[in-house]
User: Fold these one by one.
Assistant:
Number 1:
Amino acid sequence: MRRFAGRFSALARTDTGCAILICLLVLAAYLPTIIFRVSANPAYLVSDLTSMSRRGVTPGWPWIDPNAGFHVQALGGFAANEWLHGHIPWWDPYMGAGVPLAAEMQPAALFLPFVLLLHFWSGVVLLKIALQMVAGVATFALLRQLQLGRLASFCGAAIYALSGTFAWFADSPILPVAFLPVLLLGIERAFARAACKQRGGWIFIAIALAYSLYAGFPETAYIQGLLALAWSMYRFIVSPRDRRFAFATKVVTGGITGLLLAAPLLIPFLEYQQASAIRHNGYGHMGLQKIGLAAFLLPYVFGPLHAFESFDTSGMLAESMGNSGGYFDLALVFLSIAGVFAGRRIRGLRILLLVWTAVFAARTLQVRWAEDLLGFIPPLDFAQVFHYSEPTWEMSGAVLAALLLEDWRRGIRQWPVFIGAISAMAAVGIALGLSSDLVAELFRRTPHYWKWFYGSAIWGIGITCFLTVLLLRRPSRLWARVAGALVILNTAMLFAIPELAGARNAKVDLGPVNFLRQHLGLQRMYTFLPIAPNYGSYFQIAEINHNAVPISAQWMKYVNEFIDPAVDAHVFTGYLPGPLSAREDAFRNHLTGFENVAVKYVVTPPGENPFAVHVPMNESSGGNNVAFPLKSGEQISGSATAPSGPFHHIAGIGVVIGTYGGAATGSLAAQVCVGNVCGSGTASLSDVPDNQSFYIPVNPTAPLASGTLIRYRLTHIDDPGTLRKHEVCIWLWPSRDKAQYSPRLTLVVTPSGALPVPVYHSTVADIYELPHPAPYFETQGGPCLVSANSRESLQASCKAPAVLVRHELDYPGWRAYVNGNRRQIRPESIFQKIELPAGDSHVTFAYTPSHIGWCYLAMGLGMLAIIARLVTDRMRNKATEAFIDLKSDDAQLKLARR
């Protein structure tokens, strides 16, 4: 034990050792999920393919936003697989009618090497861990560059690496967060180099800016860039007049180089924005309710994420939780405020960080003066500041907390600590007062809420008071370590709670995915949630559903005209249909539109048929039902009058049955007759719900008119090889006059005679095949034989000149070649078409973004600038700027104290 403690102490005495310990700390924060076997893998929670799971140790969800699955896992996983197969993921043919992938940004398709982690089943968790490690090590390096000691720097790094944003999010907004400390580190290095009249120092700025953009969430990157700009302005002001131009030149050089490096992403993104149906999401003016302040200070005072929202009749809790971007806990408030006044060194920077946090926190809580102030920055009108600015507060808090711990170690007066403690307690008192009505309602309606309320309050206030008492003592090595350990423990505990809300013993049923892979070919499917939107890309099965921003205006126009007129082309998530019941009519009335976009299969929740309407056929009293057992070979028959309605054909019949808890065996056969036309069919009784309606499809479909007499017969048939045969019961209800008993029947009717065929059933999904789907490649004109090798390649043999229609979105950047010769692609509706000559043709299609050659040239210039800077660097670390030179001269130390 002593040997281990000695090695740990030796490791903590070096910067490299501290960086290693930060990475180990991040891993340790996930240790509870390993102990309790809890997984935050989004596939278990949002893919709608989970056949079995248990909820985690804590209630709620492991993250606020399910886009951790839709965007990061589904689309990012597809991008990772494309890279691993040697393809740049410019285009996604598996979503909508085909969409630009990298240009959509949120999948972070070009975010190398980090995106490659999404190839793994738990890649979202691995990616988050990697980014937290980068964030922690970079924050430690930044604080060391500010001349702070290792213990204070380590605590600041822990605060940021385990921050509220990382705790509550796993989707695209967190991806740029890791590079904010790298960007600030670059500014500090540029400042130090300028002060010492040395060249270089801007490479970290370029790398951080490029990675912030490649990370794929421009709103987060933009707000972080504003903090970096404010930080740079402060450093510009405190620089000697003769060194200001040199410092500004370094910052501008780093910024321009970073933009050049990101050109292959920026130019396609801007082009896609112009072709997008979504211009403004309309959320920029929003913010949090005042109750949100309590959740910022005491993160789980309203319970775990989304756990108790159903008990809040006002809906404020769901709105506040959904719009939150993380938390800034009470202990961090105390450390930050005390850190502003604790020391004189870099006093201006401390005030800047305090003002920044106060302004953006006020804007998040919809304080009017903050809205007006930030309104002078026009792009912020389009950004969800309330949702994506929290990482900049957390960075500010981490820096101020580290400064306080360093100042305390060197000796400070007691009044800054009192100011911090009083301010923190006043803030939590105000916050709890603003949320008192919600707290009272949750106490009344939620059985276990009191544990979370009192636990959060006692923990937050207790940690703050303990830290206050420690910082009022005379500093010593022991108490410094205790204070640091307390800060780290607080951040780690708050971080771990959402992770424990993942799934346990979860299993994903890939049966529907495997069926579609085997039978779909180049055509597409449409889903009513099983295989959730975007997960078609993950499993590489084409689906027209999507959850993406931006999205093509051409595609959304097609959706409005031919698929679902109720869809708003400017909604935030593009075309993401709601529950089946909300889309049945539009779906049945626009089947041709689905087929014309090459949709072959429709995926529904098990037992739900979107092609038919379930209509009650007879009326009966509501109680005193009796069971009528049917043994093998026995039957029950009767007649009823068809209800009124605009129906055309009977496609099936439903009856309420009892299976004795699943013991019924065999199948139930039905015959339904209208006049002389009869339809019949059977359905298996295995794995059917007990005491619920059981539906039997009939074929051929019988024509139906209002008021006609319908005759039915139900027969129980047992399998010949069944050893132990069990009857099935038909539930009977008395008529209103109680003169006779009859089954409660439901007709399954369809508007047309062509009913899609059910082809697959499982516990998570049913799959239906449409009768006339368009092929992916279709010829017009002369007769042609087409043999497709892939979506981008085919062989065609035409007896006369013809036109080839490819059901892929017509978008700038696509090129077509016939026998090696370039052919012009013309639009066919929203799709692509080219002319084919008579005879044999080898046709290929290829996509790269417009102007990609210039983008590659710009990126190459940026890379050459960095290489040239590294080669000519006169510092001792000539080969790389990945390590920080902490041996500052007197000029650096003097400037650092300002």
Number 2:
Amino acid sequence: MLNSPPKVRVQLSEALAIISGHDFPFKWPTLLPQLLEKLTTTDEATLNGVLNTADSIYLRYRGEYMTATLSNELEYSQKLVIPLLNTLKAATARLPTVSAAPLQLAALLENVRLIASIFLSLNSPGLTQDFEDTLDDWMDNLHKYLMIETPPALVESDPDKEGVVEAVKGAICEALGLFMEKNEEEFAKYLQTFVEAVWKQVVGAQSNVGYDRFVMAAIGFLTAVARSVHFALFGDAAALRQICEGIIIPNIRMREDLEEAFEMNWLEYIRRDTEGSDNDTRRRAASELVKALTDKFPSEVTTLFTGYVSDMLGQYTTAPAAQWKAKDCAMYLVTALAVKGKTVAAGATSTNALVNIPDFYNKHVAPDLAPESAGKVHQVLVADALKFVTTFRAQLPQQSLHAVFPGCVEALKCESNVVHSYAAVCVERLLALKVNNIQVFTPDTLGPYLQPLLERLFSAFHFPESKENEYLMRCVMRVISFVGNAIAPVAPVCIQQLSQQLLEVCKNPTQPGFNHYLFESVAALIKYGCAVDPSAVVTYEEMLFPPFQIVLQEDVQEFHPYVFQIFAQLIESRSSVNGIVVQLPETYYTILPPLLTPLFWERPGNIPALVRLVEAYLTVSAPEIVKSGHLQAVLGVFQKLLSSKAHGHEAFYILNALVTHVDLASLTQYLPHIWGLLFQKLQSARTTRYVRSLLVFLGVFIAKHGCEATSASIDAVQPGLLTMLVQQVWVPSCQTVQGKYEEKIIAVGGAKILADYNALPSDVWCSLLFATVTALESISSSGGGGAPTTIMGNGSATAMNGGAGGTEEGDDFEFSGYSAAYAKLHNASRVEQDPIPDVQQDIKLYLAQCLASAGKKMPGRVPGLIGGANAYVQGKVREYAAAAGVSLV
């Protein structure tokens, strides 16, 4: 490998690194000795191969935390420390002799870079004793290379390509940054020397892209020093001025490559500029240095930088067309100076009190967004202004935000992809903004802008390269969700637009975020449009069925979960407010049989959406499903899901829907098999989540069909099994069930068992009474149940499993990407309904009434059983009876 050509050597080295990741060091004990043996060579090419190999092996130590295994590996690898240092010293000794030979010098410096990289990797988990003992020699040699000047012969002709000297300095600065972060005490005695050296080198660095890695690493080191206890090194006024003039402003100023990205690679520009992906840019590095210095010297730094900002704004005022970059730099610097903390949801959450943000906004930002300025301000500055409003939206007066909103809407007309994308982001964030938990904008205030806003958003999709603009589509979704029912009059037009876009993206789905927000927008239009006019669902179906059919026919797998959720939403929308079901079109029954085949259920991302869709069919059209012979297929899906470890809880969604909406006569023949499967899993794979799900289902069954039918169906599996379930499962676990509707089901089910199931032994009856009373009191003390959860389906806040599911999506509709995972549509969530609507009174009163009714049927039995309970339970039951106005005697 060491004799291979450089490009082949790199590939072999990477392969070796992959193998060593599994086998090195203890399964490959000969590797390190072989490397050490080759380190003694004076041939630069051979040495390069050895060092490349070692560098690839040890890169995996970066970012690792110290563990016993890693400690053993590091201890073993300390054999490399002295030979590696000797190799560095030998290179330093050869440096004067090869300085006049460019090729030899470049080879030597490349090897020094690799040594510095290995040095960084081996020290990343922590400073070892061997390195600490030799740290003087390491730092002395690294300092010499940090101070080396680039010979003219090694200056890269391509300004975008990193030179070998800059690569060495960058690797050294990265190592220095590590020591400041992890080994500040041991590094302290070298600090002054290296701060001066790095400072000098970064001030003299060119603005070429090839210098970026070195400059960013150097600024990162200086930032680490500024944040440490040694920040006083920068406290001198002259030092701060030099940092500002020589380091910060030159590296914040917009370069040609960034300007070119604004025009030619807008998506990358936005990601770097607004989404925090610019950690590897000079601008972000310089910005972090500003923040670090401001934290330590707030008054001095703010005063100094304010002066520079004023100068740059003055340059812009004298010649706006020629000096727009000066204002761009000023605005970036103000943001770096002012923001102390921020979040995606609120923008800047804490700011530098010495920076008057509203004043700066009024003087220098708002004018760039005024309608009369349209077309007169450089597009970069319009983008800067929009970003400023977005960043400081929580810090600006509400009247300013209301005043700037028309300008943000107007900016959507700008053909620049960056500008209209920033405008969409700004509008979307402003609509989501809350102050003291109160919306800054309301549907009423948005009303006059609604039509032009939607028109400009949909028109912006026609700009070049914005056909699948995620920022625009997210804004569309936000506007629809924000105005709610007020969107109904224009909902058909919007759905028509989105349907056409869906037809296009079906051909080649490439933008997951755009696609998600597209479907979320469709779901929102259906949600609010049907809330105002339920009959509008027919119009929506006519527009959406053609693209949906293409998704299914052409097997566009990425869209299946979305389409299934919206199908479910459309089906449920056919139930009017008073619950009268409109007959489903034949199309729905045509697609049902294929959806019940195993093909769709083999894809994990489809399962929650398909379950949601099956629930919708059962909720709206259960008799038709039974009549058409699909019940067995639905039960087959239930059985398949129940056997799955990952999706077993989904089986109960279908089961609850079956019990709730299918008449008992149609289910009777299948119930012994259903119970058998449930009890088999209870024995073989019992989990807390499964027990909660089973209890809720059992409670639903009892509440819907009574104890007699429940007992008959369960005892068909094994006589006396219901008694055993109550004693061994219900009583010990019923109090673990959480959720508004789940707790009601358990309470009602417990009351019915106590009142109607006469086969319970007295000790089990008393235990059940105690568990039911305790659960009722727990509900009362917690305010009437936990967070609302999905009892009859999986489309709401959490999964129905006795409260064992996740939490509701926030208002921000965040999307993290789709693949095999399920991407839930917030706007298509099922509106949950009380599964036991006939029980409206307080469950405590309901329990007392049930017990009183049972006492009348069998005089003396219920009072006797209650008398066997403890005093606490007896007191509570008497309290419930008194409140209900019934007698238990």
Number 3:
Amino acid sequence: MQKRLALILAVVLSTTAVGTLVAQQAPARAVQPAASTIPKISATKYTLPNGLEVILSRKPGIPMVAVNLYYHVGPANEASDRTGFAHLFEHMMFQESKHVPEDTYFKLLEAAGASDINGTTNFDYTNYFETLPSSQLALALWLESDRMGYLLDTLDRSSFANQQDVVRNERRQTHENTPYGPAEEQLIHLLFPIGHPYYGEIIGSHQDIQSANLEDAKKFFKQYYAPNNATLAIVGDFDVAQTRQLVTRYFGSLKKGEPVPPITAQTPPLTAEHRKTVPSRVELPRVSMAWLTPAIYKPGDAEADITATILGGGRSSRLYKALVYEKQIAQDVSAYQQSLQLQSVFEIDATARPGHTAEELEAAIDAEIAKLVAAPPDAGEMERAKNAFETSIISGLESISGLAHRLNIYNHYVKTPDYLQQDFARYAPVTPAQVQSFARDQLRKNARAIVYAVPGQPELGPQVATPAPVKAAEGEGTESVNADQAWRAHPPKSGVAKVLVLQTPLSATLANGLELILVERHDVPIVAASLVLRNGSDSNPAGKPGLASFTAAMLDEGTTTRNSLQIADDVARLGSSIGTGSSVDASNVTARALTRNFGATLDIMADLVLHPSFPAQEIERQRASRLAQLVQAKEDPRDIAPRVTAIALYGPNHPYGYPEVGTEAAVKAMTRDDMVGFWKQNYVSNNAALVVSGDITMAQLRAAAEKAFGSWQKGTPERPKLDSPAAPAAKIVLVDTPGAPQTQVRVATLGAPRSSPDFRPMQLLNIPLGGNFASRINMNLREKNGYTYGANSQFTFRRAAGTFQVGSGVRTDVTAPAITEILNELKGILEKPLSAEELATAKDGLSNSLPGAFETNANAVANYSNVFTYNLGLDYYANYAEQVRAVTLPQTSAVAKKYIVPNQLVIVAVGDKAKIEPDLKKLNLPIEYRDAEGRVVP
């Protein structure tokens, strides 16, 4: 489910690639193009006789196609006593239909190599999408048309009840068992009255979800899931004539539905300030304030977007500078416009630093709004906001799934996919005075809702019982809408596959040893880059957990020529993004920029890496932030579970046994000398690669890299030797979270390093076990039993031995049964190894999905960064499919026996001890009690 979608449809100034890096020699200053260079997206829209709208947009290149189907229905169309129904029905659409057997939808698409399969419910619409090889387009259309035309033929009482359980588990996981979830829901309740379509905040209430019945679903389907209330967008590498024929074949015979009733809801204005304090399972208070603002694409909507960016759009924004940087009273702050059909929402959220209050945050936010009311933003702020929109939208055009979504968004709200030019026309003329007027007229104290999330026990309302499993005759309650067609009974055969020939990326090495790796592509004027160093937290000295991470975090906090805020402003002025960070095996500085601004962006990257100054005052500010992060990590069971699992497997002293940020004691003790020492030893040119993908040639990249990094010196980086911990003994680790409506469960043991020859068989073993939606574990816990919103397993590969673990958030009252089912599945993979069909399906999915791994520049950069980190060789992906196909069934069986050893499985349960401990004791395993930081407690 997509709970919130902030539709910031960005200003576009240019997508024309610049032949040379014209900004290379300039300081961090964006080049302003002419408005006439706004791209014209080629898209054709037509309508079938039954009312289905079809949008086709060819984007040749990678042999992939995105299928994106919008149904023009969401909570905006719901009845007042059926909140959450549109989202509940989204789940129903992934069940079986007349010609697609149960649990087959995901299985078929995953085997076909689909890299993006999901559905989302927005306040105003519901969409379903998949991205897959072009040769499999017919499969996607067959599946989408079958559930559009034949869902009710198999929708019975049992399958409906199962998805009610799943959706209620989703509500627990995403709203009730997250630190600020209850407060977020209350904010919406203060903005919209009971009975308003947006009041249910998409997910709806337990009472309404459980009260829904099969007749409601059938009525909803026939009213809203008809061809005349849907739009199908297809984007990618396809033949237009053939695709039109396929669309007609699969959708043309489906019956047109009755006219959809218009939405009549009215949104009453706020005429007073509405407040509520919400006790929450948090350590740090948060204030959220929101206003009702102009609807999407209406006058004032564009001004709201720009105002939000100026106020709270990143490190260059006013609220960040005031609350996080200067006053240091906030851990984080953001502002955004959530543009919607009936009424948009302008929201500001800020989380307090330890020792500070929601009242302080509110006063500081009000002061910044008052400043904007008193005086308009300056030209630099306007430039930074507009350039950020430009980069955002052009980056979105890289992905065929992103483009398909954008075309459908435009069509849904303004009835045409051809709206990019008009969208630009909304943003370009926005003036500083208009932003000032928006703040004055819209962001008024007497027309807003404010929620404080404060430490306390959440009030989740009356419990709604989960009924016993429905016992109904198979097919009870089904009906037909469309006449059967015999040819639909079998999946279509694949078309002629277009082989993706992955060229080995271009490479070069500078005189100082810096390696350049380039994936050259010129479809959009965007360049993504990552400077990767082969040292991460694995290189932390004994007793200094978090040093690699702290060092990386300090890179953009000041150099010898720029302070922290100057860095943020320079990057924002270019419309670029730069981030610094570390992982267990690497440190990196990443960037994304328009082609014309890449040279200037690269210069800033080099300044951060070559000339960090580690200012004392910034170290203390960052220290406070990191200590607050550690406090926040104790709030969320989804953070607690992996942390406790790691320390239970590796112990507190192994680099893999603590979080990347480190520990409270280590963060407090870290010194400037520690960071400078780590930087001097490991941030050296012969330990790094600059991995780049996008609209740039090797000659241009080499010239830019020589200019930016040519003076970087070689060195002798740390090459750590990590001890292998002893195999764990089976046990239960229980972390008490009183009142939790859900238990976060992990079942884990030690795995293998990335260099292991077992890597590929382990990878293929995991896919049918728990690595995808149609896996054994997820089908058991979610679809068969309704215990969870989702369950998965994975092998984590690192330079030293990683882990194997199964993870899920399960309903509190079925914690022990859910763990039992996980253990049964793990024993089952030993007693009933993968079948030939399961292995073949996993191989097909893994090899066929390879094109999706390179759909965007960021994808390509991430993949080849891993290639560099683990010394896999630049021809790794050229040999990928061959390696996958070579894995045998005996190999998968052997690695299952080697790595999934029942008496070495550690079970971590983060939940309400009083409710789950009695049944956990029945599992006859020793129970160890730990706190949220992983420390053993009596």
